[in-house]
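#structure-requests
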Amino acid sequence: MLRLPGVLLLAVGAVVLGAGTAAADDSAPWQVKTAANSYGSNRANYSYTVAAGGQVQDAFVVVNRGKAPLELAVSAGDAFTTSSGELDLRGPDSKDLGTWVHADRKQVRVLPGKSVQVPFKIAVPADARPGDHLGGVITSLTQNDVERRLAIRIRLRVSGALEPSLSVEDLKVRYAGNGDATVAYEIHNTGNTIAAARQTASVSGPFGQLKSQSGAIADSPQLLPGESWKVSVPVKGVTPAGRLTGAVELLPLVTDAAGSTATFAAVQSTTHAWTIPWVVLLLLVLVVVGAVLLIRRRYSRAS
């Protein structure tokens, strides 16, 4: 898997972007790093802001750390968030940034102890969506039917209005008994920026009374535009007082390429579920039964 921002890989079709100035894996015979040029030196990854229809010219460097020549495949892919919250890269099925990146070659040969610089171009379509796009350049080596990859992240922002936006979807509240409830929902990134969500959840009774707050909820992973993230939150100490209200609040967190995080207007959503207040019903039954017996007794005495 690719964990942004740098790189590291180890399995068939899996790339991991880690936090370093270059893509490196101690067991891999090669290293990938950004080229030193007008964009800077010792960059951990690539970050650009480009107008729709514009282009970027850059390069990466492949270093052979082994004792034999290497023949590496060169490609690019879109980033996506896995079910474990990590970032991975797609392959030939890419439809976004991965299709905009064009290296000047599909294979690179590197002799032992040597390095080769590989130029690449990013051609942004004229109709590209404004906002954030994430992907990476990938080098791969196949030996004994095992493919290993090293990649470097590319974060590209297409110029235009930035519209951070999250929504709560498919919100449900379920009461399991013994004061335990679950609030389940999906966080959907409906904006055009990469964003995470700070979350709170609660369950309350009629008219907002008997409110029970969930424990601390970890922030969601950073979601790419269009992505969703499923969440299930336990809430303790819930009173089954008939109509329950489950409430969720999301605070969007947007981190720029420099690492600064900004917050935006919170998003709130509620849903309802019914529970049977057995204690109240039992007391009501006892009261009714008592009243009936009392009326019968008085009627018997009167007759």
